[in-house]
Amino acid sequence: LMLMDSILYTEFLLWRECPSLDRSSAFLSRVYREDIGPCLSFTRSELSQLVQGAVESNSLTIEPVAIPALPMIKASSIECGGPRKCALSGLSRACQHRIKLGDKGTYYYISPSSRARITTVCNFFTYIRYIQQGLVRHDAEQMFWEVMRLRREMAVAKLGFYLTDQG
Q: Cβ contacts of residue 119 below 8 Å, gap of 6+?
């Protein structure tokens, strides 16, 4: 049995009356503070901010890495990470995915945990964009529970839990 937090629900209902991606609403302000901000807060803070901007503008691309037969080391490989170093955390991890921000040609290698954190935030934004565009045909309560499920996914990912088979 899940009991609804009336404050959260009220904030959501107020936002739903005039849904926007403007974070000045109590609802989005809370989600940014409690979920999105912490989820996208990585060791490399400058790159973290660029990632958040790309997620907000819906211009972030995540793709699997094709491991080359011979390692190619470029001058910028320290900033961008590589197959064995996550550009966001700076940790040595096997990176099976890379991200691109907007239409810039630079790719950043990301670890599975960084990918999980970014993906959960993207999933949240996708859903609230659907609400904003009038594409969600559920009642307010169903929408609220889906928002809460997506928030839980962000919380779980920011704690370092993720599925290894995210394809």
A: 62, 157, 166
pLDDT in tens, 140-167: 999 999 999 999 999 999 998 887 654 4
- What are the CA-CA distances from residue 134 to residues 57, 118, 156 (Å)? 19, 25, 28
Beta carbons of 95 and 86 less than 8 angstroms apart: yes
Render pLDDT for 103-122 as a digit per residue (tens, 0 to 9).
888 999 999 999 999 999 99
Phi-psi region of 163 (alpha: psi -120 to 50; beta: other; left: phi over 0): beta
Residue 61: CB atoms within 10 Å: 12
Beta strands in 37-138 (DSSP E): 60-64, 97-101, 107-110
From the number of C-beta atoms within 10 Å of its C-beta (0-12, 13-18, 19+), residue 40 rates as buried
Report pTM.
0.88
Length of the chain: 167
How many Å apart are CA 63 and CA 53, to the nearest integer? 18
Both tokens assigned to 52: 């958040």
**Distance between CA atoms of residues 87 and 126, nearest Å:** 24
What is the rounded CA–CA span in Å between residue 150 and residue 157?
Answer: 11
